[in-house]
Design a protein that fits this description.
Distance between the termini: 41 Å
Shape: elongated
Number of domains: 2
Helix content: 40-55%
Strand order of the largest sheet: 1-3-2
Number of strands: 6
Oligomer: single chain
């Protein structure tokens, strides 16, 4: 999957170079994105790179993930062509997506691999059960107090 992503990034940049009659520098492509985010174009100061979530890519397949790759490369192209002060999914980015013959969708509806979905922990109050994330569960274990919004009583582990 990594080689596929790299090849789509390269093909997209080559296509953009022909469309806009200019060269685009090649930036690093990382594969360490986690959680429910499929891809990101990251820029901070002089650093620019693309990040992709391999578990999501592998769960959904090459054809489904191609739009995400082009989506992120389009952010990089927009930053190169315009300025860093444009809206992330604004007119300029949408125009680039059209030029690249790709649907300009902002969100995805990929199937999530089980490793991404996460565990839910059951807690109770006086009126109902609550399911909390592992992050909230760990905060409660370390002493944080969570209260039911409905009955205002403290949550406790089942």
């Amino acid at each position: 999957m990594k080689s596929y992503i790299n090849s789509v990034v390269e093909k997209t940049l080559c296509k953009a170079e022909k469309i806009y009659n200019r060269e685009f520098s090649r930036i690093p492509v990382l594969f360490n994105l986690k959680g429910m985010v499929a891809g990101q174009f990251v820029f901070s100061g002089a650093d620019e790179f693309l990040k992709f979530n391999i578990p999501i890519a592998e769960t959904n397949g090459k054809d489904a993930f191609k739009n995400t790759i082009v989506h992120e490369v389009a952010h990089y192209i927009a930053r190169c062509l315009f300025t860093k002060y444009i809206k992330p999914h604004g007119y300029e980015w949408k125009k680039i997506m059209m030029d690249l013959d790709t649907v300009a969708s902002v969100t995805h509806n990929y199937a999530m691999p089980s490793s991404v979905i996460g565990t839910r922990h059951e807690y109770k109050c006086e009126c109902q059960s609550h399911f909390v994330s592992t992050i909230i569960h760990n905060k409660i274990r370390k002493g944080s107090v969570r209260v039911c919004r409905k009955c205002k009583t403290q949550l406790f582990k089942c």
